[in-house]
Amino acid sequence: MEWGFLPMIFIATVQSTPPLLIAGLGELITEKSGVLNLGVEGMMLVGAVFAFIVAFITDSFWFGATAGIGAGIVMAALFALLTVFLRANQVACGLALTIFRHGFSAFVGLEYEGKSLTSPPAYKIPFLGDIPVLGPMLFNYQVPVYFAVLLLSVTVWFLLHTRAGLILRAVGENHHAAGKMGYPVSWIRFVAVIYGGALCGLAGAYLSIFYTPLWAQNMTAGRGWIVLALVVFASWRPWRLAMGAFLFGFIGIMNFSLQAWGVSITPQFLAMAPYLVTIAVLVIISLSLKRRGQSTGDTPQCLGQPFPLRS
Q: Is the pLDDT confidence value at 310 over 60?
C-alpha cells in the first residue's frame, strides 16, 4: 500500500458519509420525539428514485433534490398518520411500509434503469481549497457534503440550546408530562417524523444524483438499516452519529480499496464488513451498558410508545 492513497481514501470516505449522516440526523430527531421509524431504507429508496427521475427530466440537480425531499415527506406523512394519529404499531408499520417502498421504487424507476446523469461538479471553497494537501481533502466537495456538516451543527444547537429542542426531548422522555403541560404531543411528533422523512429523501437524492448519478433497484444497499443502528451506536447524540457515519463510510470504501491493492480477501466478506461491524458495535454497546447497570443508555423513555389522544 502506498501512503499517497491516504488522501484519496479520506476524500472517498467523506463523499460516502452524507447519506448516512443526513438520514441519521433525521432519524435521530424522529426518535428523540418518541417515534421509532424503521422505514428509513424505504424512504431513502423512494427519495432516490424520484430525485433521479425529476433530475433526468428537468436536467436540474436541485429540482431533483427537491423532488427527493418531497417524496420523503409524503412517505413519512403516511407513516405518521398511521402511527401518531391512528396509533398503529410503529414497528409493524415501519417494516410494512419499507417492503411497500422497495416494490414501489422498483416499479416507478423501471423505465429509468440503465440511464445516468452527469455528476454535479465539486465546489472548491475560495482560498481554503488552494491549501496544499488539506485543501482538496477538506474544502473541495459537492454542495450536499457541506450541507451535511452544517446540518450536524444545527442539530446539535437545536437539541441542546433551544426551547424547541428541549420540548422535543421532553416529549420523547415523558409524553404524559409534556401533554399535561399543554404541549401538542401528537403534532410535535408528526412534525418530527415529517422532518426525518425529508432528510431521508434528501439522503436518497444524494445517492442517485450526486454520489452515483444513476438509478438502480435497491441502490441504497442497506444503508437505511445501518442508519438505524448508527442512531443506537451514537446513543442518540449527533456528534457520535457523525463519527459513526464516517466510520461506516470508511469501512465501505476500504471494500474497494483493498481489492484495488490486490489484498487477497474474498470480496463477499468485504461486502459483509459494514454489517458485521454494525452487529459487533451493538453487542459492545449492550455489554457496556450492562456493566454500568443501565439497560437503555440515552434511549428516549417513550420511544415506540403511542400517545393516547384522549387522556
A: no
Query: Closest by alpha carbon to 35, among 97, 100, 88, 72?
Result: 88
pLDDT digits (tens, 9 = 90+) for 162-178: 999 999 999 999 999 99
Q: Are 216 and 49 in contact (CB under 8 A)?
A: no
Q: Give the whole-number percent of the chain exceeding pLDDT 90.
A: 66
State the residue for C-alpha cell 431533483: 64
Contact 105, 49 (CB under 8 A): yes
* Residue 311 pLDDT level (bands cut at 50, 70, 90): very low
The Cα-based distances of 174 to 251, 259, 298 in angstroms read 37, 49, 13
User: What letter does residue 214 receive in the DSSP assignment?
Assistant: B
Q: Which residue has the cell 387522556?
A: 311
Helices (H) and strands (E) in the chain, counts: 13, 2
Average pLDDT across the chain, whole number:
89
Quote the cell numbers at residue 216.
Answer: 438502480
CA distance 157 to 173: 19
Dig out the grid coordinates for 20 from the structure: 448516512
